[in-house]
Each structure stands twice: as C-alpha cells, then as structure tokens.
C-alpha cells in the first residue's frame, strides 16, 4: 500500500515537472549547462520523457511497464544531475547567492534518493527493505 502511494506521488511529481518543462521552459533553459546544442529541444524532450515515465510508473496493469518507467525516470534523474550542479554553481556566483545553500545542498542530496525512490516504487529493487534469506 505504501509503495503504491509513493509510486503515485513520484509519478505525479514527475508529471507536473514534465508539464512545466513543456509549458514554461525558461527556468529550465536558464540552468542548462552551456555548450549543449538545441537547448529548447532538450528541455521539451526532457518534459516529454518525464511525462512518459510518469505514465508508465503510475499505470497499474503492467508491472513490466512500471519497471521500465522506474528505470527510465531513475536514469533521467542521473542525466539531469549536471543541470542541478550547474544551477548550484550559477546561483552561488550571484551576489545574492540566488536560492542559497539551504536550497541547493538538500537538492544535491535528494538526487540519489530520487533515483532510489523511482527504482523502489517501480518494483525494480526492494533494498533496503527486503529480508535476507539464509
């Protein structure tokens, strides 16, 4: 029951983020590391990826599809981590420190938790809750 609720919560958060990437891309464009080609297309496609992953994770008729969505969202969280680091560096370089350390430090620590959450909620792993069989 808890896993299902947390799976739906994570899927909802990713769906909201996906919609925001598509309808309001400017904040995402502003934190994208420089040198990447076609930043507008990247932000749009990341929004689409979040929506597809959220739908796959949330649906209840196929555990295979849920696991695929979970793996996709976990990989997505790993792939966007450089943008989070870039946002941190950009903010800390501002005279007012932007959103500050109170925002960025927890966000850095949250990223691996989000990766685990996707994998656990999607049934890819039971760690650390599974019992050892001796």
UniProtKB/TrEMBL annotation:
Keyword Cell membrane: no
One of the record's GO cellular component terms: membrane
InterPro entries assigned to the protein according to its UniProt record, in alphabetical order: DoxX (IPR032808)
Sorted UniProt keywords: Membrane, Transmembrane, Transmembrane helix
Domain of life: Bacteria
Record flagged with keyword DNA-binding: no
Transmembrane segment boundaries: 41-58, 70-89, 109-129
A Pfam family: DoxX_2
Membrane topology annotation: Multi-pass membrane protein
Compartments where found: Membrane
Protein name, UniProt field: DoxX family membrane protein
Classification lineage: Bacteria, Pseudomonadati, Pseudomonadota, Alphaproteobacteria, Sphingomonadales
């Amino acid at each position: 029951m808890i896993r299902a609720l947390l799976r739906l919560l994570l899927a909802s958060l990713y769906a909201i983020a996906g919609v925001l990437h598509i309808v309001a891309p400017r904040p995402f464009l502003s934190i994208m590391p420089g040198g990447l080609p076609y930043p507008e297309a990247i932000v749009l496609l990341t929004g689409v990826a979040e929506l597809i992953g959220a739908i796959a994770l949330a649906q209840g008729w196929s555990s295979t599809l849920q696991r695929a969505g979970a793996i996709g969202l976990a990989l997505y969280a790993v792939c966007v981590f450089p943008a989070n680091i870039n946002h941190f560096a950009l903010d800390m370089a501002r005279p007012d420190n932007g959103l500050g350390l109170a925002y960025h430090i927890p966000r850095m620590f949250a990223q691996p938790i989000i990766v685990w959450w996707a994998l656990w909620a999607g049934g890819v792993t039971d760690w650390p809750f599974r019992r050892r069989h001796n």
